[in-house]
Amino acid sequence: MAKLSIALDSSAQTTKETGTSRISTWSKKYAMFLLPFITVLREGLECVIFVGGVSFAAPATAFPLPVVTGLLGGSAIGWLIYKGGNTVRLQWFLIASTCVLYLVAAGLLSRAAWSFDMYQVCGRPCWGSWGSRINRDIYILTRASVKVCQASRRGRRGDRSRSREL
Q: Mean pLDDT across the stretch 1-20?
């Protein structure tokens, strides 16, 4: 324990020439390594916690296939991002990742509405109840508003082209 405290004290001491600590200098030097490293560690810890939480409800034989598939899928996606990082424009990468995020969010919303419909306040299964109707209505309103926005943009563009022709 004494060695650890001595090492921490010596690393936290500031050098007289630069006025910065060794930890600060080291963290600036390896910042592009530290950020992804800590992020991956955090996500890995979350994965272990969630898999552990699921393990209480499922038998032990249910884990190898999803874990191996998740590792292979994550490794493949990571490799594609690494290799394609220099060739794909950042805008297209962000668009694709946003689309994937939208799909995940839609699946979570759909699952939550299904669970809410199945077990309402009374606790009995109810099919086709308020949750599915509200989700459908939100979807219809969103689609209608997108169509209206697209039509108004086309209308404005059409007016500009007509004014140029006159």
A: 57
* Predicted pLDDT of residue 166: 46
Helix (H, G, I), strand (E, B) or coil at 21: strand
- Rounded to 5°, the CA angle 128-130-135 comes to 90
120: left (phi over 0), alpha (psi -120 to 50) or beta: beta
The answer to whether the CB of 23 falls within 8 A of the CB of 17 is no
Could you report how far apart the first and last alpha carbons of the chain are, in Å? 85
129 DSSP assignment: -
Tokens for 80? 């594609």
- CB neighbour list of residue 131: distance below 8 Å, 6 or more residues apart: 112, 113, 114, 116, 117
Amino acid at 8: L
Measured CA distances, 116 to 12, 51, 108 (Å): 54, 24, 12
Confidence of residue 155 (pLDDT cuts 50, 70, 90): confident
Q: What is the CA radius of gyration of the chain?
A: 27
- Residue range 16-63, pLDDT digits in tens: 455 567 888 887 888 888 888 888 889 888 878 877 777 777 777 877
Please provide residue 21's backbone torsions phi and psi, each rounded to the nearest 5 degrees: -85, 165
Residue found under tokens 């994965």: 47
Report the alpha-carbon distance of residue 28 to residue 14 in Å, rounded.
Answer: 15
